[in-house]
Amino acid sequence: MSAKYKSFLARLYAGILRIVATFYRLAFKNIDKALREPPPLRIVLLVSKPQDIELLIGLHEIARSRKDLSLCFWVVKNCARRYPMVISQLKEEKAIVEQVISFSGLGKVLRELMRTNAFLSTVESTTARHKLPYVITKLANAAGVSTYTLQHGFENVGLSYCDEVHGPDIKFAAKTVLTWGPVEKLPAWVRKDTRDKAIAVGCPKKLVTLGNDPSVTKGSRPIIGVFDNLHWHRYDKKYLANFLRDLGTIAEKRKEFRFVLKSHPESVRNRSREQLARLSRMENVDVADLLGEEKELLTTPWLLSHALGVITTPSTIALDGALAKVPIAVTRYGLDLTYYSPLCLLDKLESWEGFLDCLTKPSGIHKLTMNGEQFLNQVLVSGDPSAKILNVMVGQQSNRDSTSQT
Questions:
Q1: What is the per-residue pLDDT across 60-69, written as a single tens digit (0 to 9) for each?
Q2: Counting Cβ atoms within 10 Å, is residue 256 exposed (0-12), middle (13-18) or buried (19+)?
Q3: What's 157's DSSP letter?
């Protein structure tokens, strides 16, 4: 059976279930009215990528202490199969993993939605209309469930990023869109219907690290953490060539620093033989995934905790680094990165040099760190994001209940 035919059957199946959900919703509405005391607000959080856990686990921690909330997780089957640690990580946090879901189990999903008040996912839009988060959100809408989608990255299609592939026509099925930054700061191209249903809550992900202390490397060369997500279609051949050329040149020239390259897992999987050979030949660049056994676990948290400075392609790493109070530079090479201002932006080898020179002086480090603080103030709203999200859900449910009683 072809993938196209499977996709058609999945859409047909989901469409039929949405019609059934409408009738179920009316039946359950009458049952709810007969209850003397309302049950706790039942919230379902969907995990479709491993990084969803760090965004959603804070909601679980708060809900555990509240009798008016009942919170559980659903995990997409493909995610659980590809990343087995997701289930064990949730169980370590004493979270309730109610079910692992797939297209073949949408009937059970619908039954569970009938007793659900709020459904939240992080990766859901018309760019993935055939993916489970989008399909289940549409199903939840038909069942009368309050639906939410949470911004999952600093550059989120439909909210903070668009290009010729993912343009301003992108829509979200969820009734409420939860953003990290102020709604009024959303780009002008964001759709009006998206803007109208957006609520700013902040970024609920747990801090990658509590702070930056490069002093532990005293006696050895200071570390410069270099992060890339070069698998992304936004980077053309010229950008890729400039990035690799300048990294190799600066590392060979500035041997007073130790350069550590940490690539996104998709970048690692999509490297060409030519790129792999070029990275392997670079002097003074430790490619984290090529080192094998090493006394240091060169994870993202470790690097953000111990690096004197960080250079990254445009990504959420810039936000993580600023939160860790490590000096940040973002490689631009002609891209429009105005939303990263006032972070240091690199366009040529001389700007890499200038950034490293700043890291050799306390005054330079202070200025770069302050730029990171200003950046955070522009792109994040203050307060406890997890608590805000739960309060939005509770408040909207109370409004729905009072409306249905009038």
A1: 999 999 999 9
A2: exposed
A3: B
